[in-house]
Amino acid sequence: MSLLQRLHPRAWPLPGGCWVCLGWNGARICADCRSAFARPLPRCSGCALPLPPGTHSQLCGHCLQEPLGLTHCLAAVDYQAPWDGLLQALKYRGELGAAVALAELLPEPPKHLPRPQALLPVPQHEARLRARGHNPAEQLARALGRRLNLPVQRDWLLRLRDTPTQTQLNRPQRQANLRGAFALATGAPVRGGHWAIVDDVLTTGATVAALAQELQRHGAASVQAWVVARTPDPHA
Hints:
Distance between the termini: 25 Å
Helix content: 25-40%
Number of domains: 2
Number of strands: 6
Order of helices and strands: HHHEHHEHHEHEEHE
Radius of gyration: 17 Å
Family: Belongs to the ComF/GntX family.
InterPro entries: ComF/GntX_DNA_util-trans (IPR051910), PRTase-like (IPR029057), PRTase_dom (IPR000836)
Protein name: ComF family protein
Organism: Inhella proteolytica
């Protein structure tokens, strides 16, 4: 987040301004900010953690031992400044324009993978949705859908329980917290299809793993996860 945004949290750009530096250049995220803060990194294909330099495996050690069950995991950036500020603005202050800017950061998915037939945003419980007024994952999915010409199915994945916040929980605790929290909508035609779950931040991967398991249980052929930001290695 820029100094101006820290001093004035509502000081987001006018049309044509960069959401990071507020520079007037016609881009939502200018080339200088992309170069400084969003350089592509080799990432684990299973959980999107950055891979050590020189590694030849496509999977990190954690995914070799305990995979999330995804066909592929795609992340644009690490969860750090300035992207954490933009994500918090989207999530907690309703700055919906940030979703469009952030969605532009996501790289194209690998060409060798099946193209998803639809984007499935991580669902919110209706109580939290009423309180917040929007689902950040859905806003990101809609922006990605427009960019990549993919439909968004916002009602296929359901959150049955308003689970407590998971911010301070490790992966086993998150898995226990999410047990029985999700379901697939009756009649959602996922069998045999290829789908991409969309979320704002991936920490331990427990949420996308639970949703992928639910989709696979109903016959999905492949499930990817597309997230804006990946937190640092929780095991490090």
